[in-house]
Protein backbone atom coordinates (compact mmCIF):
# COMPACT_ATOMS: atom_id res chain seq x y z
CA UNK A 1 0.00 0.00 0.00
CA UNK A 2 2.62 2.54 1.07
CA UNK A 3 4.91 1.88 -1.85
CA UNK A 4 2.08 2.15 -4.35
CA UNK A 5 1.03 5.71 -3.42
CA UNK A 6 3.51 8.24 -4.67
CA UNK A 7 1.88 11.25 -2.94
CA UNK A 8 2.19 9.59 0.43
CA UNK A 9 5.76 8.49 -0.21
CA UNK A 10 6.77 12.00 -1.34
CA UNK A 11 5.25 13.75 1.68
CA UNK A 12 7.60 15.14 4.38
CA UNK A 13 5.96 12.90 6.94
CA UNK A 14 6.64 9.83 4.85
CA UNK A 15 10.22 10.83 4.16
CA UNK A 16 10.79 11.29 7.88
CA UNK A 17 8.66 8.48 9.24
CA UNK A 18 9.45 5.82 6.63
CA UNK A 19 13.16 6.42 6.31
CA UNK A 20 13.69 3.04 7.83
CA UNK A 21 12.20 1.46 4.72
CA UNK A 22 15.19 2.56 2.69
CA UNK A 23 17.22 -0.07 4.52
CA UNK A 24 17.52 -3.60 3.29
CA UNK A 25 14.66 -5.70 4.59
CA UNK A 26 15.81 -7.54 7.76
CA UNK A 27 15.06 -11.10 8.71
CA UNK A 28 11.83 -10.01 10.43
CA UNK A 29 9.86 -8.12 7.78
CA UNK A 30 6.83 -7.84 10.03
CA UNK A 31 8.84 -5.92 12.60
CA UNK A 32 10.27 -3.63 9.92
CA UNK A 33 6.79 -2.76 8.62
CA UNK A 34 5.56 -2.09 12.16
CA UNK A 35 8.47 0.27 12.80
CA UNK A 36 7.74 2.09 9.56
CA UNK A 37 4.10 2.56 10.57
CA UNK A 38 5.18 3.99 13.93
CA UNK A 39 7.56 6.32 12.11
CA UNK A 40 4.75 7.57 9.93
CA UNK A 41 2.65 8.48 12.97
CA UNK A 42 5.56 10.20 14.72
CA UNK A 43 6.47 12.12 11.57
CA UNK A 44 2.91 13.38 10.99
CA UNK A 45 2.73 17.07 10.08
CA UNK A 46 1.21 19.46 12.63
CA UNK A 47 -0.23 21.73 9.92
CA UNK A 48 -3.94 22.41 10.44
CA UNK A 49 -5.96 21.56 7.35
CA UNK A 50 -9.55 21.85 8.62
CA UNK A 51 -9.62 25.65 8.75
CA UNK A 52 -12.03 27.40 6.37
CA UNK A 53 -14.00 30.60 5.93
CA UNK A 54 -16.75 29.47 8.31
CA UNK A 55 -14.55 28.51 11.27
CA UNK A 56 -11.43 30.68 10.95
CA UNK A 57 -12.76 33.27 13.40
CA UNK A 58 -12.73 30.66 16.17
CA UNK A 59 -9.03 30.00 15.50
CA UNK A 60 -8.40 33.77 15.49
CA UNK A 61 -10.13 34.30 18.85
CA UNK A 62 -8.74 31.26 20.68
CA UNK A 63 -5.07 31.31 19.66
CA UNK A 64 -2.38 33.94 20.15
CA UNK A 65 -1.28 33.66 16.52
CA UNK A 66 -2.84 31.81 13.60
CA UNK A 67 -0.93 31.88 10.30
CA UNK A 68 -2.58 30.60 7.13
CA UNK A 69 -1.05 29.77 3.77
CA UNK A 70 -3.39 29.94 0.79
CA UNK A 71 -1.89 27.87 -2.01
CA UNK A 72 -2.61 25.74 -5.04
CA UNK A 73 -1.58 22.19 -4.06
CA UNK A 74 -1.59 21.01 -7.68
CA UNK A 75 0.79 23.68 -8.98
CA UNK A 76 4.56 23.29 -9.09
CA UNK A 77 4.96 26.20 -6.67
CA UNK A 78 2.40 24.71 -4.31
CA UNK A 79 4.29 21.42 -4.21
CA UNK A 80 7.53 23.32 -3.64
CA UNK A 81 6.32 25.34 -0.64
CA UNK A 82 4.32 22.62 1.12
CA UNK A 83 7.39 20.97 2.76
CA UNK A 84 8.63 24.39 3.91
CA UNK A 85 5.25 25.02 5.50
CA UNK A 86 5.52 21.70 7.33
CA UNK A 87 8.91 22.79 8.65
CA UNK A 88 7.43 26.06 9.89
CA UNK A 89 4.67 24.16 11.72
CA UNK A 90 7.31 22.06 13.48
CA UNK A 91 9.43 25.12 14.32
CA UNK A 92 6.60 27.05 16.05
CA UNK A 93 4.58 24.09 17.31
CA UNK A 94 2.90 24.93 20.61
CA UNK A 95 3.36 28.65 20.04
CA UNK A 96 1.28 29.36 16.93
CA UNK A 97 -1.32 27.60 14.81
CA UNK A 98 0.01 26.95 11.31
CA UNK A 99 -2.69 26.16 8.75
CA UNK A 100 -2.98 25.77 5.01
CA UNK A 101 -5.93 26.22 2.68
CA UNK A 102 -6.43 25.21 -0.92
CA UNK A 103 -7.12 28.68 -2.26
CA UNK A 104 -8.51 27.29 -5.51
CA UNK A 105 -11.14 25.38 -3.54
CA UNK A 106 -12.10 27.88 -0.80
CA UNK A 107 -12.30 30.99 -2.97
CA UNK A 108 -14.48 32.84 -0.46
CA UNK A 109 -11.87 32.53 2.28
CA UNK A 110 -8.99 33.48 -0.01
CA UNK A 111 -10.72 36.49 -1.56
CA UNK A 112 -11.86 37.78 1.84
CA UNK A 113 -8.22 38.53 2.69
CA UNK A 114 -6.97 39.47 -0.77
CA UNK A 115 -5.19 36.18 -1.48
CA UNK A 116 -5.29 36.40 -5.26
CA UNK A 117 -1.80 35.04 -5.99
CA UNK A 118 -0.56 31.81 -4.47
CA UNK A 119 1.06 31.13 -2.18
CA UNK A 120 -0.26 33.91 0.04
CA UNK A 121 0.44 33.98 3.78
CA UNK A 122 -1.88 35.78 6.20
CA UNK A 123 -1.36 36.11 9.96
CA UNK A 124 -4.17 36.58 12.47
CA UNK A 125 -3.22 38.00 15.89
CA UNK A 126 -5.64 37.47 18.75
CA UNK A 127 -7.25 40.74 19.82
CA UNK A 128 -6.14 42.59 16.68
CA UNK A 129 -8.51 43.32 13.80
CA UNK A 130 -5.80 43.99 11.24
CA UNK A 131 -4.52 40.97 9.30
CA UNK A 132 -0.77 40.83 8.61
CA UNK A 133 0.65 39.73 5.25
CA UNK A 134 3.92 38.02 4.47
CA UNK A 135 5.13 40.19 1.60
CA UNK A 136 5.61 38.72 -1.87
CA UNK A 137 9.00 40.41 -2.07
CA UNK A 138 10.33 38.21 0.75
CA UNK A 139 11.85 34.85 -0.10
CA UNK A 140 9.62 31.92 0.91
CA UNK A 141 12.14 30.16 3.14
CA UNK A 142 11.89 28.88 6.70
CA UNK A 143 14.01 31.60 8.43
CA UNK A 144 11.91 34.40 6.90
CA UNK A 145 8.63 32.67 7.68
CA UNK A 146 9.66 31.83 11.23
CA UNK A 147 10.77 35.40 11.91
CA UNK A 148 7.47 36.69 10.49
CA UNK A 149 5.49 34.49 12.89
CA UNK A 150 7.65 34.86 16.00
CA UNK A 151 7.66 38.66 15.92
CA UNK A 152 3.91 38.51 16.59
CA UNK A 153 4.06 35.98 19.44
CA UNK A 154 3.36 36.94 23.03
CA UNK A 155 1.96 40.04 24.70
CA UNK A 156 2.59 43.54 23.52
CA UNK A 157 3.27 45.74 25.36
CA UNK A 158 5.72 44.01 27.72
CA UNK A 159 4.86 44.50 31.42
CA UNK A 160 7.69 46.25 33.31
CA UNK A 161 7.69 45.67 37.06
CA UNK A 162 10.49 47.88 38.43
CA UNK A 163 12.39 51.10 37.79
CA UNK A 164 15.41 49.03 36.74
CA UNK A 165 13.27 47.13 34.25
CA UNK A 166 12.12 50.46 32.83
CA UNK A 167 15.71 51.70 32.47
CA UNK A 168 16.83 48.44 30.84
CA UNK A 169 13.91 48.54 28.43
CA UNK A 170 14.48 52.15 27.42
CA UNK A 171 18.10 51.36 26.55
CA UNK A 172 16.84 49.36 23.55
CA UNK A 173 16.51 50.78 20.07
CA UNK A 174 12.96 51.86 19.28
CA UNK A 175 11.89 51.48 22.93
CA UNK A 176 8.61 52.96 24.12
CA UNK A 177 7.08 52.86 27.59
CA UNK A 178 3.58 53.75 28.68
CA UNK A 179 2.78 54.79 32.26
CA UNK A 180 -0.77 54.02 33.33
CA UNK A 181 -2.59 53.67 36.63
CA UNK A 182 -4.80 50.62 36.93
CA UNK A 183 -7.72 50.85 34.49
CA UNK A 184 -7.92 54.65 34.71
CA UNK A 185 -7.92 56.53 31.40
CA UNK A 186 -9.26 53.39 29.70
CA UNK A 187 -9.48 55.09 26.30
CA UNK A 188 -5.78 56.06 26.34
CA UNK A 189 -4.80 52.58 27.56
CA UNK A 190 -6.83 50.95 24.79
CA UNK A 191 -5.14 53.12 22.14
CA UNK A 192 -1.71 52.34 23.57
CA UNK A 193 -2.33 48.60 23.55
CA UNK A 194 -3.60 48.79 19.98
CA UNK A 195 -0.53 50.71 18.78
CA UNK A 196 1.69 48.30 20.68
CA UNK A 197 0.23 45.43 18.65
CA UNK A 198 0.05 47.17 15.29
CA UNK A 199 3.51 48.78 15.51
CA UNK A 200 5.30 45.96 17.35
CA UNK A 201 7.56 45.25 14.38
CA UNK A 202 8.84 48.86 14.44
CA UNK A 203 8.97 49.69 18.15
CA UNK A 204 9.54 47.77 21.39
CA UNK A 205 6.66 48.62 23.70
CA UNK A 206 6.67 48.36 27.48
CA UNK A 207 3.99 49.26 29.99
CA UNK A 208 4.02 50.12 33.69
CA UNK A 209 1.05 50.05 36.04
CA UNK A 210 2.16 52.78 38.45
CA UNK A 211 -0.43 51.67 40.99
CA UNK A 212 1.48 48.39 41.37
CA UNK A 213 5.08 49.41 40.59
CA UNK A 214 7.06 51.87 42.69
CA UNK A 215 8.90 54.38 40.49
CA UNK A 216 11.00 57.40 41.47
CA UNK A 217 8.80 60.53 41.61
CA UNK A 218 10.72 62.15 38.76
CA UNK A 219 9.67 59.28 36.46
CA UNK A 220 6.09 60.50 36.89
CA UNK A 221 6.90 64.11 36.08
CA UNK A 222 5.18 63.84 32.71
CA UNK A 223 1.93 62.80 34.37
CA UNK A 224 -0.13 59.65 34.17
CA UNK A 225 -1.14 58.43 31.67
CA UNK A 226 1.87 59.31 29.56
CA UNK A 227 4.25 57.73 27.05
CA UNK A 228 7.98 58.16 26.58
CA UNK A 229 10.11 57.06 23.63
CA UNK A 230 13.87 56.41 23.49
CA UNK A 231 14.97 59.41 21.42
CA UNK A 232 18.76 59.33 21.66
CA UNK A 233 21.29 56.88 23.16
CA UNK A 234 22.20 57.49 26.78
CA UNK A 235 19.50 60.08 27.47
CA UNK A 236 18.09 59.76 31.03
CA UNK A 237 14.48 58.65 31.32
CA UNK A 238 13.37 62.01 32.69
CA UNK A 239 14.77 63.79 29.62
CA UNK A 240 13.00 61.64 27.05
CA UNK A 241 10.14 63.14 25.01
CA UNK A 242 6.77 62.83 26.75
CA UNK A 243 3.44 62.10 25.10
CA UNK A 244 0.07 62.68 26.73
CA UNK A 245 -3.37 61.94 25.23
CA UNK A 246 -3.91 65.68 24.71
CA UNK A 247 -1.21 65.62 22.01
CA UNK A 248 -3.52 63.77 19.59
CA UNK A 249 -3.05 60.33 17.99
CA UNK A 250 -0.11 58.35 19.36
CA UNK A 251 1.22 56.84 16.11
CA UNK A 252 2.35 60.05 14.34
CA UNK A 253 3.93 61.28 17.58
CA UNK A 254 5.99 58.09 17.82
CA UNK A 255 7.16 58.43 14.23
CA UNK A 256 8.23 62.01 14.86
CA UNK A 257 10.17 61.31 18.03
CA UNK A 258 11.73 57.90 17.42
CA UNK A 259 15.47 57.30 17.27
CA UNK A 260 17.27 56.93 15.00
CA UNK A 261 15.18 58.81 12.45
CA UNK A 262 15.01 57.58 8.89
CA UNK A 263 14.86 59.91 5.89
CA UNK A 264 13.31 58.74 2.64
CA UNK A 265 12.85 61.29 -0.16
CA UNK A 266 13.77 63.98 2.35
CA UNK A 267 10.79 63.15 4.54
CA UNK A 268 11.08 61.45 7.96
CA UNK A 269 9.46 58.03 8.14
CA UNK A 270 8.99 55.54 10.94
CA UNK A 271 11.90 54.11 12.89
CA UNK A 272 13.68 51.06 11.53
CA UNK A 273 12.58 47.73 13.02
CA UNK A 274 14.43 46.63 16.18
CA UNK A 275 17.34 44.22 15.62
UniProtKB/TrEMBL annotation:
First and last residue of the signal peptide: none
Cell compartments where the protein resides: Membrane
Record has Transmembrane as a keyword: yes
Membrane topology annotation: Single-pass membrane protein
Pfam families for the chain: Thioredoxin
Entry's Gene Ontology cellular component terms: endoplasmic reticulum; membrane
Keyword Membrane among UniProt keywords: yes
Chief location category: membrane
Domain (Thioredoxin): residue spans on this chain: 50-135
Keywords (A to Z) from UniProt: Membrane, Transmembrane, Transmembrane helix
PANTHER family: PROTEIN DISULFIDE-ISOMERASE TMX3
Official protein name in the record: Thioredoxin domain-containing protein
Lineage: Eukaryota, Discoba, Euglenozoa, Euglenida, Spirocuta
Amino acid sequence: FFFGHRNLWDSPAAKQGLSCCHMRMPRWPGLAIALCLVGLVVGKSSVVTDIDFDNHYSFWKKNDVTVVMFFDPKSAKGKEVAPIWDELAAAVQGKAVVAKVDGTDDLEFASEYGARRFPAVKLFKKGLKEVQTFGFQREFVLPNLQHFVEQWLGPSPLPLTSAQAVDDHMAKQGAVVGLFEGQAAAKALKEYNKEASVQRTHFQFGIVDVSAVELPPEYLSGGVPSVRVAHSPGVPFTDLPVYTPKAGPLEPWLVTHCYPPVVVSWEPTRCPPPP
